Amino acid sequence: MPVYTWEGRTRQGSIKKGVMEAANEAAVMGQLRAQQVIPINVNAKSKDLLENLPFFKGSVSTRELVVFTRQFATMIDAGLPLVQCLEILADQQTNKRFKEILRDVKNDVEQGSTFADALKKHPKPYDDLYVNLVAAGEVGGILDTILNRLAVYLEKADALKRKVKGAMVYPSTILVVAIGVVVLLLVKVIPVFEKMFADFGGELPGPTQVVVSMSNFMQTYIVLILAVTAGVVFSFMTARQKSRGFRYRTDAIFLRMPVFGSLLRKVAVARFSRTLGTMISSGVPILDALEICARTAGNLVIEQGLQKTRAAIAEGRTIAEPLEASGVFPGMVVQMIAVGEQTGAMDSMLSKIADFYDDEVDTAVDALTALLEPLMMVFLGGTVGGLLMAMYLPIFKLAENIK
Predict the structure, then answer these.
(1) CA 357/CA 273 separation, integer angstroms
(2) What is the 3-state secondary structure (H, E, C) of 80-145?
(3) DSSP labels for 147-168?
(4) How far is Cα 106 from Cα 324, in angstroms, rounded to an integer?
(5) Beta bridge partners of 6
(6) What is the number of other CB atoms lying within 10 angstroms of the CB of residue 399?
(7) Which of 41, 75, 107, 293 qualifies as a FRET site for 168, CA 20 to 30 Å off?
(8) 291-315 pLDDT per residue, tens
């Protein structure tokens, strides 16, 4: 829908300016008159060509979504109409992409759509979990309560994601630096030493000869090595996206990895418990909640385990039995869920499990960081030090001969 900038005069005589989406200039003037504003100037807003490219449209961060959700809940609780809330939040939004989405949602609601249906058209910021919880809140008349629960869920889910990413930043940085330093030494520094040794004459020590051979190989095939590395990474990512079988096998390998596998499993349990607990406490049916939990699991092995659990519940079984049969979740989690089913306090039990595994993830991340830091420093120091030592061996040998 076109965007227009307008300028008008209020009944009190003050000048107001703004931006409005409408079908044409006449529609803008009509809306202004309805707001008791006399139009003075209405112009179509010029568009930047880059705005049409997906790369430049930007995205909505989790933090922006949390702020919107909390503000929206406060406005709804204060009794403001839904359309007015959306209009206010869209006007104050600095993210152009988010502003555009909120205006689309507002227009759909004005035309008769439910809030949940309007959000469903924008799956990037508003996923299935968000839409289903909003739908449950609309039906139950507790939209403000649901939105507050959503904000809490989004904050904790984002914190969990940042913990795992933060644990990977340090070792990844050290590894990249180490590879960069080694390549720089082999391509730029070692050839200088090689030329100097050739002028000296004589036979090079074994370690020095190995390093020189590595340097010659790197100089000759560096473009090929980079191309092959990029091709392998691209092929791996493409295969995971297009082949469900390949993704299942790699996800299973990830879960069986010595240190990272345990961390990934704990993250998955925390996410599942938090998501399912939030949806059940908000009145979403258990089968729908499990379907969404499976799609947001992030691991195909866990997703298939949850899908089998959902199918078993549809046949009349309890949730604990098929969860235990899947072999994906720890026994403690299954037992606590079974107690929650028997006592009718499933949502609170799941919340306790999520809190417990959030702490477990914290502990696992701290342990992983403490383990990787010395290992990466030893790797970096040993690699660079070994290369330099190999290049200084002929100089030591030359000094001995001079003596």
Answers:
(1) 9
(2) CCHHHHHHHHHHCCCCHHHHHHHHHHHHHHHCCCCHHHHHHCCCCCCCHHHHHHHHHHHHHCCHHH
(3) HHHHHHHHHHHHHHHHHHHHHH
(4) 45
(5) 18, 42
(6) 9
(7) 293
(8) 888 888 878 888 888 888 888 888 8
Considering the domain boundaries, does residue 74 fall inside one? no
* Cβ–Cβ < 8 Å for 40, 18: no
Is residue 28 one of the residues assigned to a domain?
A: yes
Rounded to whole angstroms, the Cα distance separating 162 from 303 reads: 22
Three-class secondary structure assignment of 26-71: HHHHHHHHHCCEEEEEEEECCCCHHHHCHHHHCCCCHHHHHHHHHH
Contact, 338 vs 356, CB < 8 A? Answer: no
**Where do runs of H (alpha helix) occur along 185-205?**
190-200
Cβ atoms of 143 and 130 closer than 8 Å: no
Stretch (H or E) spanning 303: helix 300-314
pLDDT classification of 250: cutoffs 50, 70, 90: very high
Total number of domains constituting the chain = 1
Domain assignment of residue 10, given as a range: 3-46
Reported as a single tens digit per residue, the pLDDT across 195-227 is 877 776 667 778 888 888 888 888 888 889 889
Of 31, 174, 36, 166, whose CA–CA distance to 106 is shortest? 31
Assigned token pair, 214: 């590595």
Count CB atoms within 10 A of the CB of residue 102: 26
Tell me how crowded residue 180 is: count the other CB atoms within 10 A of its CB: 10
Q: Are 136 and 129 in contact (CB under 8 A)?
A: no
Helix (H) or strand (E) holding 3: strand 3-10
Does the pLDDT value for residue 16 go beyond 70?
yes
Q: Which two tokens stand for residue 93?
A: 């939004």
- For the purposes of burial, counting CB atoms within 10 Å of the CB of 362, is it exposed (0-12), middle (13-18) or buried (19 or more)? middle
Place of tokens 């200084």: 392
Pseudo-torsion of CA 177, 183, 188, 190, nearest 10°?
Answer: 110
Give domain status of residue 317, yes or no. Answer: no
